[in-house]
Specification:
heterodimer, A: 145 residues, mainly alpha, 2 domains, elongated, B: 208 residues, Rna Polymerase Sigma Factor, Chain: A
């Protein structure tokens, strides 16, 4: 049982009461002459009667208040992470500078420490790069935030 | 709540017994919020929290995530309020933020993501429930069985399909309102509704 595309949209509009009185009369004449369409309509009506009985659970107002109270903590965590990362970058750069300006440290140690810091930097950068790439390919990116 | 305020750019506030507006309209509230008045934005939050939450729930399918999405959406809206054009209706603009966050939430959580189950604990965390309004379409089927199948069917739908069915059949939006919210022509609303309902109908075939 397949309804032609032409009637699919009209069927929905009829079901949802979105047709004008004239369109409705016209469609009812088509309905009378098409048993397949009648059957389809009956199924959609039964489905709609079930779905319309669904209730979305409403959270208690206290839960919203609780969340509102937690918001500063959430913002605090984000700010905390930003400051932490920034601090790490500054410490790493300053340490490297001091490391390479010191004359009493063996070059092999300087190189090893530089590789560790560089490796960590590359790991962090790769995570940011991946996030940026995901952002570019996000199919919902056109949606205004 | 959603329907009353969707299409009017300066959607009027709640009407008093006398018929005169007793609450400022959206445009006034936004203008005041843009000027830094926090109470005005809080009034907007109170006005749109429920429709936003319901829209988020339609996408993410559970109370916790829907509340997170709603709250985050209001935070983003607050940050972006300076760029909001006062001539435009607020809710469709805000709905796109909710929708974007809801879809991102689903993406992070994995496919489908309608996390409904019969044994979700707690009175506040109850899953979708079917209100007892008379006999079921199929008399021999229990209410519980119907609920279970409906949840499973909704869970397996694509988020976009579920969203449009919920907007129409549960939120009671008109085609015009759905078209505004989803930024699609009314013809597309009708065809998308048909395909979404058709997929749901196939999953619920036993009960129809």
């Amino acid at each position: 049982m397949a309804v032609s595309e032409e009637y699919q949209t009209q069927l929905m509009a009829y079901l949802d009461g979105e047709l004008t009185p004239e369109e409705r009369q016209r469609f009812e004449r088509i309905l009378m002459a098409t048993p397949e369409l009648q059957q389809e309509l009956a199924q959609f009506q039964r489905l709609q009667s079930i779905v319309q009985r669904v209730r979305i659970p409403e959270p208690k107002p206290e839960l919203w208040d609780e969340r509102a109270r937690r918001t500063p903590e959430k913002i605090g965590r984000v700010v905390g992470w930003v400051l932490f990362v920034l601090g790490c970058v500054i410490v790493a750069l300053a340490s490297e500078y001091l490391l390479w300006s010191a004359n009493d440290i063996p070059w092999i140690l300087k190189l090893g420490l530089t590789l560790i810091v560089g490796g960590l930097g590359i790991l962090v950068a790769s995570v940011f790069y991946r996030r940026c790439q995901e952002g570019k390919t996000d199919r919902y990116k056109e949606i205004i935030r | 709540m959603l329907r009353r305020r969707l299409n009017k750019p300066g959607a009027a506030g709640v009407e008093g017994v006398s018929g005169q507006s007793v609450e400022p309209d959206d445009r006034q509230l936004i203008r005041r919020a843009q000027g830094g008045e926090q109470a005005a934005f809080e009034a907007l939050v109170r006005r749109y929290r429920q429709p936003a939450y319901r829209a988020a729930y339609a996408l993410v399918g559970n109370v916790e995530d829907a509340m997170d999405v709603t709250q985050e959406a209001f935070m983003r809206a607050y940050r972006a309020l300076g760029r909001f054009e006062l001539g435009r209706p607020f809710f469709p603009w805000f709905y796109r933020i909710v929708r974007n966050l809801g879809l991102s939430c689903l993406k992070q959580r994995g496919r489908g993501g309608f996390m409904l189950s019969l044994d979700q604990p707690g009175a506040d965390e109850r899953p979708l429930e079917v209100a007892d309004r008379g006999p079921t379409p199929r008399e021999e089927c229990s209410q519980e069985e119907l609920e279970r199948h409906l949840r499973a069917a909704l869970e397996s739908l694509k988020a976009e399909d579920r969203e449009i069915v919920v907007l129409r059949d549960i939120q009671g939006c008109s085609y015009k309102e759905i078209a505004v919210l989803l930024e699609i022509p009314i013809g597309t609303v009708m065809s998308r509704l048909y395909y979404a309902r058709d997929r749901l109908r196939k999953k619920m075939a036993f009960f129809l």
